[in-house]
Amino acid sequence: MFAGYDFDVIERSLGYLFREGMVFTLTLTALAMTGGIIFGTLLAMMRLSSMKWLSALAGGYVNLMRSLPLVLVIFWFFFLVPYIGGWLTGSNQPVKVGAWMSAVITFTMFEAAYYCEIMRAGIQSIPRGQVWSGYALGLNYWQTMGQIVLPQAFRNMLPVLLTQTIILFQDTSLVYVISATDFLGAASKVANRDYRLVEMYTFVAVVYFIISYSLSLLVKQLQDRIAIIR
Amino acid sequence: MGYNWHWKVLFETEPGGTGTYLHYLIVGLGWTLTTALAAWVIALSIGAIVGTVRTTPIKWLVRLGNLYVEIFRNVPLIVQMFLWFFVVPELLPTALGDWIKQMPPPWGSYLPAVMCLAIFTSVRIAEQVRAGINSLPRGQRMAGIATGLTEAQAYRYVILPQAFRIILPPLTSEFMNVIKNSSVALTIGLLELTGRARAMQEFSFRVFEAFTAATVIYLLTNLVVVLAMRALEKKVRVPGLIAASGAPQAGH
Fold first, then answer.
1. Contact state of A201 with B86 under an 8 Å Cβ cutoff
2. Whole-structure pTM value
3. Tally of domains in chain B
4. Residue B6 located in a structural domain
5. How far apart are the CA of B222 and the nearest CA of chain A, in angstroms?
6. What per-residue string of b and e applies to A97-119 under the rule 16 or more CB within 10 Å gives b?
7. What is the pLDDT of residues A186-220, one digit of tens each?
8. Cys-Cys with B9: which of A92, B141, B152, B206 at CB 3.0–4.6 Å?
9. A189-228 residues touching B, CB cutoff 8 A
10. Could you tell me the domains of chain A?
């Protein structure tokens, strides 16, 4: 069955695949996760705000992002970011933004909408009485949020946040559509150069599977540990 | 800096000469929907079976179901798309593989896209179905068996009708996911809505008009799906039975 296949191509390109591709994928995942959780938490606080216009604004943003395909959002930002850059710097030419910067911004903004919904559920899982006692002790909004509500919300939602991050890790492979060299992009370049599509794409699938599956096992373990402490 | 909007571009003829750009995009929506619907039907069937099987007491079946779910959940959608498009035809018997490769466009990318989305979505549906069944009190199954139903009948008449009603809301979002995910098929050359918006941008150089039009079409589609599913939920609702609420869940 595997006669005529050349699995050596994988070994020959391992350095390129991991040093170029996987580093891109992992860095993008880490940056988008950090940015996404920070923005997502802020969005969740906005959505739960008593100021109607603020919560409508955040809700509109989150619902918009969640109803569009990620591929379309990647295209949007890929073309939009240079214009926003031009507008911010006051130049009348679009600023040159590479695929890398564009990808980081896209995934941060896109994932923020998903992290927002998770954090919103997390914040809502904290009994209102805790907020009131915070205020009763004389803490202001930011102190109550930062020292009482958010730490607990984070801990309750940690498994879901991490599962979302595994999905983010898989979704970063969609930067293929703007020809960025992530793990899949690197593999596809080698595959097309050497005409070894079967070998390379199978290898990519196996690597993604091993990483995502191990991470999901870790999340499961963490979930059990958190459940016991509570 | 400004951007010169030129909305009239939507009513200009696209280079293929089949009609206006707007028409071109609407045909794209047609492909998005036919891809998503075909995938959805297969996904629902497989997902229902796999999800149900994973709640039975038969150990090896449960393990097989778990294996299926883990494999297709942990590989990115675009990689699965490439596997179906580039790899599967090579591994099939030569005649069958050649037949698939020589299918006229767009069927050559339509078939792999549907298969990929169907399997990818079936895994997520299987998870929902299993969760729905497990959320029912154990007494339901026992009462079914006690009234003389076989295990299979208990599933058919007692457990599944309730489970499916419970998971209708999450199934709605899965359906919207399959519509959104079908955009990944543009990477294997299927000109669905996103693919056509991208093509329109390349032909006409009107970036934001193309993407805005696609965005609006996606939003309208979502609206229709939500309203239709809400009507369905109302129709099949059993008084007193509460549907699954929006438990926090990771998604994309």
1. yes
2. 0.90
3. 1
4. no
5. 7
6. bebbebbbbbbbbbbbbbbbbbb
7. 999 998 888 888 889 999 999 999 999 999 999 99
8. B206
9. 197-198, 201-202, 204-205, 208-209, 212-213, 216
10. 8-229 (1.10.3720.10)
